[in-house]
């Protein structure tokens, strides 16, 4: 096993150890996968960040999806020393925003980002030829959330004439039977989806 495979395998073991499933929550029929225990173990969370640090060392910007994605994106941005952007639920960001509504496994929601958010990026970051954005979140279920986030990032890149940028995504876990990956690849075949633990 090489360095990458070792990091991936350790990250997967940490996720398996720290995930708890709650049947019929928040709605009947939903099997809720709670990864929050991961944050109660510095070592296991650090193992996860070690994997992301290696896997995404060429990323210029990390986007965290509200709310659990914020924790992950912040940790990655600090480890990789790169900017982090919040993708927030509707009505939480001031100024002109871009928005995308979506349906997730247990309800509907809407994401927003500020139209002019890239003005806060450094000139060096903005002028990067191979601009690579990482969208990170905890769970890929139906893919509605991730799909909406990809659409918003694409709109933002287009508005900033960065159309040759690369978008990668990474999730801690995915629920295979809900076909989130398939739903996203149907719409975006140029986006990579990295999942540490598929159940
Ligand atoms: O693949 P999908 O079916 O779209 O569901 C996945 C999304 O659902 C949860 O977010 P949610 O908005 O429920 O919660 P949070 O605010 O606690 O992160 C989870 O964090 C993912 O973002
Ligand atoms: N089954 C699930 N577990 C945790 N988060 C989720 N978000 C959407 N579906 C979920």
UniProtKB/TrEMBL annotation:
Q: Name one GO biological process term.
A: purine ribonucleoside salvage
The Gene Ontology CC terms held by the record are: cytoplasm
The reactions it catalyses are: AMP + diphosphate = 5-phospho-alpha-D-ribose 1-diphosphate + adenine
Looking at the record's lineage, which domain of life comes first?
Eukaryota
In the Enzyme Commission scheme, what number(s) does this protein have? Answer: 2.4.2.7
**Which top EC class is named for this enzyme in its record?**
transferase
Cellular compartment(s):
Cytoplasm
Pathway(s) per entry:
Purine metabolism; AMP biosynthesis via salvage pathway; AMP from adenine: step 1/1
Q: Which UniProt keywords apply?
A: Cytoplasm, Glycosyltransferase, Purine salvage, Transferase
Domain annotation Phosphoribosyltransferase: ranges:
61-155
Q: CDD domains in the record, alphabetically? A: PRTases_typeI
Q: Name one GO molecular function term.
A: adenine phosphoribosyltransferase activity
- What role is this protein assigned? Catalyzes a salvage reaction resulting in the formation of AMP, that is energically less costly than de novo synthesis.
Q: Which family does it belong to?
A: Belongs to the purine/pyrimidine phosphoribosyltransferase family.
What PANTHER family does the annotation carry? Answer: ADENINE PHOSPHORIBOSYLTRANSFERASE, PHOSPHORIBOSYLTRANSFERASE DOMAIN-CONTAINING PROTEIN
The protein's assembly and partners: Homodimer.
Record protein name field: adenine phosphoribosyltransferase
């Amino acid at each position: 096993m090489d360095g990458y495979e070792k990091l991936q395998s350790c990250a997967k073991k940490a996720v398996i150890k720290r995930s708890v499933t709650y049947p019929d929550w928040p709605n009947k029929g939903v099997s809720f996968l709670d990864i929050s225990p991961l944050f109660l173990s510095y070592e296991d969370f650090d193992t996860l960040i070690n994997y992301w640090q290696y896997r995404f060392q060429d990323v210029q910007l990390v986007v965290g999806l509200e709310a659990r994605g914020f924790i992950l994106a912040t940790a990655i941005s600090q480890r990789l020393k790169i900017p982090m952007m919040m993708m927030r639920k509707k009505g939480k960001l001031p100024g002109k925003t871009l928005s995308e509504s979506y349906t997730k496994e247990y309800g509907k929601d809407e994401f927003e980002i500020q139209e002019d958010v890239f003005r806060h990026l450094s000139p060096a970051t903005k002028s990067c030829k191979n601009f690579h954005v990482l969208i990170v979140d905890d769970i890929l279920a139906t893919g509605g959330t991730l799909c909406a986030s990809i659409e918003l990032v694409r709109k933002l890149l287009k508005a900033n004439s960065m159309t040759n940028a690369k978008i990668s995504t990474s999730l801690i876990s995915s629920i295979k039977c809900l076909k989130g990956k398939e739903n996203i690849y149907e719409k975006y075949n140029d986006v990579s989806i990295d999942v540490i633990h598929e159940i």
